[in-house]
Task: inverse folding
């Protein structure tokens, strides 16, 4: 349906017309029974949603071009490559305690019940690595709680994922590094199979599940960390990292990718304000790891190997964890930026 709508949209646009989802749907319905009788086997939503999706894809493309973002031109979907998904309008499904009623499919068990109470707006059913998921949009009141928690500085890194100025530490679990061996073995296994064959399919889905598992492990860690930080702190100070630049470092790019520091910052950016706090980004050229947080002395000679910060000022003599010192500096700098 999506490909049909996209092709039709393109032809009409190139002929100087102004295609829209409604008109296309009408046009499609006129030939549906004759040319696409199989489309009656699935819910009406799956068919109608495709037209919506095409319209959204074009809207994103044109808006992206205006905002100089890189949103690609809508592409045709492929049975092999594309993520399989369809839309359900809110009047077409019912959610129960542990089930969902999908039209033409019946009652489907859910692994987890819907955690939010509110008006259900729509749903989308999709497939990832042989598992089926439903994401349900629920309308809820947007109440930001009052936040009287203390401010905190957060230093992110590869040796330790996050070090907080109040002493909390989160280790980097490196899910990709741990499962890399298994990933390589499966990739080799896939290469040995006949492409497109039954065993090739089996290995391919095994590989997809492993990739998904790695992504889940990473997301779980990041979500737990960011939720905890957002709920327990008022002001959160972080370093404004140049993530794209870091990923270009060939020796460390896998580690950076595995730690997903960019996602960590994105999550904080969305969660901290929702918990009533403020996120302050400290400029990326601020030498947070070189300064001593007690006396302000700067040690430009500090190497990456030194995990303990030793202050060379005889009057100060501070010694402490390198990342903790950096997080304290980030906090001080953020408080200075915000002002009294
Ligand atoms: Zn010092």
Result:
């Amino acid at each position: 349906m999506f490909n049909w709508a996209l092709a039709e949209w393109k032809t009409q646009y190139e002929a100087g017309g102004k295609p829209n989802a409604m008109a296309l749907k009408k046009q499609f319905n006129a030939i549906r029974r004759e040319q696409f009788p199989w489309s009656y086997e699935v819910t009406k939503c799956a068919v109608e949603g495709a037209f919506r999706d095409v319209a959204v894809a074009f809207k994103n493309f044109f808006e992206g071009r205006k905002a100089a973002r890189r949103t690609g031109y809508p592409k045709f979907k492929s049975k092999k490559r594309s993520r399989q998904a369809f839309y359900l309008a809110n009047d077409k499904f019912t959610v129960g305690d542990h089930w969902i009623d999908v039209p033409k499919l019946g009652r489907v068990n859910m692994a987890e019940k819907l955690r939010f109470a509110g008006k259900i707006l729509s749903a989308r059913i999709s497939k990832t690595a042989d598992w089926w998921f439903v994401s349900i949009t629920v309308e809820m009141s947007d109440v930001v709680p009052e936040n009287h928690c203390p401010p905190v500085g957060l230093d992110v890194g590869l040796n330790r994922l996050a070090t907080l100025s109040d002493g909390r530490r989160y280790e980097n679990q490196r899910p990709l590094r741990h499962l890399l061996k298994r990933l390589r073995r499966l990739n080799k296994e896939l290469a040995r199979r006949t492409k497109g064959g039954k065993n090739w399919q089996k290995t391919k889905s095994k590989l997809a599940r492993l990739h998904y598992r790695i992504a889940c492990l990473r997301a779980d860690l990041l979500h737990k960390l960011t939720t905890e930080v957002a709920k327990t702190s008022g002001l959160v100070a972080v370093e404004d990292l140049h993530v794209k630049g870091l990923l270009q470092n060939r020796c460390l790019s896998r580690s950076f990718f595995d730690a997903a520091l960019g996602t960590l910052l994105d999550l904080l950016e969305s969660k901290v304000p929702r918990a009533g706090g403020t996120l302050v980004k400290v400029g990326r050229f601020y030498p947070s790891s070189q300064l001593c947080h007690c006396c302000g002395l700067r040690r430009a000679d500090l190497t990456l190997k030194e995990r303990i910060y030793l202050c060379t000022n005889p009057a100060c003599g501070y010694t402490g964890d390198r990342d903790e010192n950096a997080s304290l500096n980030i906090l001080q700098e953020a408080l200075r930026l915000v002002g009294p």
In short: The pocket of zinc ion is lined by residues 292, 294-295, 297, 311, 313, 316, 318 (CB under 6 Å). The chain has three domains: 2-66, 85-139, 152-276. The mean pLDDT is 87. The CA atoms of residues 193 and 200 lie 5 Å apart.
